[in-house]
Task: structure prediction
Amino acid sequence: MSDLLLQVDGLATEFTTEQGQARAVDDVSFELAAEETLGIVGESGCGKSVTALSIMRLLPKPAGRIANGAVVFRGQDLTGLPPEAMHKIRGKRIAMIFQEPMTALNPVYRIGRQLGETLELHHPDMDKAAVRSASLEILAKVGIPAPERRLKEYPHQLSGGMRQRVMIAIALSCQPDILIADEPTTALDVTIQAQILKLMKDLQQETGMAILFITHDLGVIAELCDRVLVMYGGRVVEEAAVEALFAAPRHPYTKGLLEAIPRLDKPAREMLDTIPGMVPSLHDFPPGCRFQNRCGYVEDQCRQQIPLLENINGNHKVRCFRHGVLNG
Result:
């Protein structure tokens, strides 16, 4: 893979709870190259956001910790870096857009101060005039009208779409190599969502950054991503190019997610397809395949052994003993 930026190898993340240790991310591996967009998709609680927080070393302390694996950014393992060294990478080399902009932005500080803080932290040589000029430039670049006025406003004075653009501006202010976007279009209407996705694509083409895009929306994955990881129960169950995944899913969970998407060619008022059952809690994962209690293809082997993530066709990987019985 050309110009490889990030290698996540065997990542495992645990949390200490009243019921004991809970492993939220288990043996997750992937690579990310410059100018590439990798999507991570799955139901709530599958480990998507915890994977991102592990990469950024932003796990809540003392409950959360990286139990195993490596996160290698440009040849340097981030899991062993001292806090001071990680501070220089976080926000400058690897930036993140968090799920909810209203809570991610500080409600008592003006937009100008919050944007300026990032620039001042990573560029201490910049004076106030340079910080203001750079802030205006990045706000204009992300499509915010009247940026001079917006610098003086508070988050509650902006619409949801505007707040999300501010979050993107803050994340991109230091021109990072990698942008991690955690559900950046959640709670936005479809028109604003389309504008945000187009903005991210345009900025990627302009800067050459890589994007790790976390979502539960397969429509967004199809629109924006080059490759996709499907996660379930803290594990990667399928990885493929977007076109290959949508054309021929090889894991029953992926197949179920795709079949649950509403389609215009189905009869009106017809019941939507669903995946039966519930995701097990972190303390109740069954032995063997974690999808076994919801899978229509389950057999004895699935209940006894953990399937490996196998490369079955080029760069199409799947964690399933029964992948051969699915279409593909």
In short: The chain has one domain: 4-93+176-309+318-325. Residues 190-207 form the longest helix (18 residues).
